[in-house]
Every structure is written in C-alpha cells, then in structure tokens.
Amino acid sequence: MEHNIRVFPDSDALAFAAAEHVALVATSSVEGRGSFDFAVSGGRTPWEMFSHLRGMDMPWSRTNVFQVDERFAPDGDPARNLTHLREALSDVPATIVPMDADVDPNNVDSTALAAHSYALALPAEFDLVHLGLGPDGHTASLIPDDPILEERTDLVGCTGMYQGHRRITLTYPGLALATQLMWVVSGTSKQDALSRLLSGDQSIPAGRVVAGESLVMADADAADPDAMSDEPSEG
Q1: Which CATH number covers residue 114?
Q2: Are 70 and 117 in contact (CB under 8 A)?
Q3: How many independent structural domains does the chain possess?
C-alpha cells in the first residue's frame, strides 16, 4: 500500500507530532460518530506520545483504547504492554480494552480462547491504529517466519516464542480494520526496515500490512537523510 511520510528532527518532535495527529483524528471521529476507537502497539514510542497527548485537548471520555499486541505474562508484569498503557492513561477517563494475556502461554486452548475473546471485543473498524517497526521488519507481533503471518481469517492470533515471550496480536485481517494506520518510527536501527516498508517490500512482515490509509511518522535517525528538510515533509 502507499504511505504518506513525515520526517521530524528528533524523537521528541516526533512524539509531539504523533500526539497532535491522534488528537486531531480523535476530535474528528467524535464529532462524526460520537466515539474514537484507537489501537495502540507496545514499545517506547507510544508512552512518549501519551506524555504529550495528556496535555492536549482530547475527548478522553469518548475514547476507547485497544491493544495491537501483548506478551503473555502475569497482570502487572513490566513485560506487559498493558502495564505501561495503564500508567500512561492513569489520569484520563479513557476506556482501555485489554487483551487477556494473564493465561498460561503453554496452554494452547487458553491462548486461543484469549485471542477469540479479544476478536469479539473489537469494533467494526478502528479510527486509528498506531504501529511501530522493528529492525527485523516486524510490526505489531507479526514476526518474521511465524505462522501468524499466514492467518487470513481470524482478526486476533497467537505467536510462537519471540524474544522470550509468546504473544497475542492483531493479525493482518485485524489491522485491515483500520481506517488509518499511524506508524511511529524512531532510531538509526530502524533505517533499513523503514526503507523497505516505504518501498513496498513484502518480504518483511510490516510490508504486508494493508489498511484504509497509512501515515508514516519518523525521526531523522530512522529516515533516509535525503528525506529531511527544515519542515516535516509529506509525500
């Protein structure tokens, strides 16, 4: 799919701009249909974004925050994306819709039930889905060489072991519910993966994501230096 790209001087400018975009989409969604359905990935970048977003004009009471992916680990474990999401939103009245990842990761029936239950909780479409990008080209928990990449029906699925944890994640069909994707990409380690994403390279998991629209927001470290200008660019 085609991507619009905006490049920012550093990670803080990126996080602030991402927060501004979320607030803009949220306001438009609430004005249009009364609520804002927003799915958020794990990692460092969303928490930096939320630190700015809490100070902006946001319709928090009309905002439903879903998880893009999660590690199977006990509730409250620092490995859980939910732990950090709750901390980031502790002082705002948003509704968090958590993935049930407090189950035995080795029990296939339990993990499959967790995925099925979350699929039933999803909206018909997301107004906005936030995605990150790994140096290996993964996004959400769609990881290289995992059978989850071949899922064509279920909206939510479970992965094998990756970096010490099995995971629950929106699949390609689940991400396709997005009216718009917002990729937030930071750091020099992401340069190759970002270049491949923008070129449409489907050999990396991120390159196979398809949704309504796609906005890629990156800092100068992650972007090709030739993409930088004095002002954020869109293309």
Answers
A1: 3.40.50.1360
A2: no
A3: 1
What pLDDT, in 10s, does the model give residues 76-134? 999 999 999 999 999 999 999 999 999 999 999 999 999 999 999 999 999 999 999 99
d(CA 129, CA 25): 11
Residue 11 lies in a domain: yes
User: What residues make up the domain containing 19?
Assistant: 4-144+174-227
**What pTM does this model have?**
0.94
Q: What are phi and psi of 13, to 5 degrees?
A: -60, -35
Instruction: For the chain, give the percent of residues with pLDDT over 70.
Output: 95
